[in-house]
Amino acid sequence: AHNKDYVDRFLNSDLSDKEIREIGLKPWSSDIIERTMFLTGGSLKALEDINNGSPISSNLGGGTHHAHKEKGSGFCIFNDLAICALKAINHYNFKKVLIIDLDVHQGDGTASILSGIDDIFTFSMHCQKNYPFLKQKSDLDVSLGENLTDDYYAQILKDSLYKLESFESDIIFFQAGVDTLKEDRYGKLNLTLKGIEL
User: Fold this and answer.
1) Phi, psi angles (nearest 5°) of residue 11
2) How many angstroms separate the CA atoms of 117 and 105, rounded?
3) What are phi and psi of 73, to 5 degrees?
């Protein structure tokens, strides 16, 4: 999922100031390395649980969908969604992976890392006028206008999920960002807790 050079330089605390600024975590310290390894390991453990027969598993600290193959971005260092999707295909017996990303921001890193892999389908439903401002191409992108409320959001999501039915996945990774809530000052959508529960 990531270039070895980028991984090694991160683990050795050798990223450039520009790379650190693009990731955006402040203050930057060596503790971020351990945090990142625990976060990524949590998602890999959740995948292992599924592979061992659990019907559902989660990592509440995961969803780092802005990390690209050669760099971190948007508070994301390693892309746990892409890492787990590739491990599911290459190391476990999963044949088709579906990624459903409902974070208010597009899963640009996930889209770029997994582009062109036929057995992995990426779906991102996000606010158009929000970070990242340079979007990548997912297999299915649904761009939303600002200030969208529960009923409109639910209908757009329902219509979009119908389009995914033809992709017969045997595992689904769900990025359930809550920054679609109206209380999120940067989200630009107006969903309520009740709307997210739907």
Assistant:
1) -65, -25
2) 22
3) -165, 150
pLDDT 10s digits, 17-54: 999 999 999 999 999 999 999 999 999 999 999 999 99
pLDDT band at 122 (very low <50, low <70, confident <90, very high): very high
pLDDT for 77 equals 98
For 119, the 3-state DSSP assignment is coil
User: In the numeric block, which tokens belong to residue 60?
Assistant: 């509440």
At 161 the pLDDT is 95
Q: What are the structure tokens assigned to 121, written together?
A: 């389908």
Left if phi > 0, otherwise alpha if psi is -120 to 50, otherwise beta: which for 63?
left
pTM (2 d.p.) = 0.95
Peptide bond into 27 cis (omega under 30): yes
Q: Which of 171, 184, 21, 47 is nearest to 99 (CA)?
A: 171
Average pLDDT, stretch 57-80?
97
DSSP assignment string, 120-143: EEEEEEEESSSS-SS----SEEEE
CA dist., res. 136 & res. 77, Å (int): 17
- Which residues, other chains included, contact 160 with Cβ-Cβ below 8 Å and sequence gap of 6+? 123, 125, 140, 142
Sort residue 28 into left (φ over 0), alpha (ψ -120 to 50) or beta: beta
Measured distance CA(176)–CA(162) in Å, rounded:
18
- List, for residues 139-156, the tens digit of each pLDDT value: 999 999 999 999 999 999
Using the structure block, give the residue that is written with the tokens 């017969």. 168
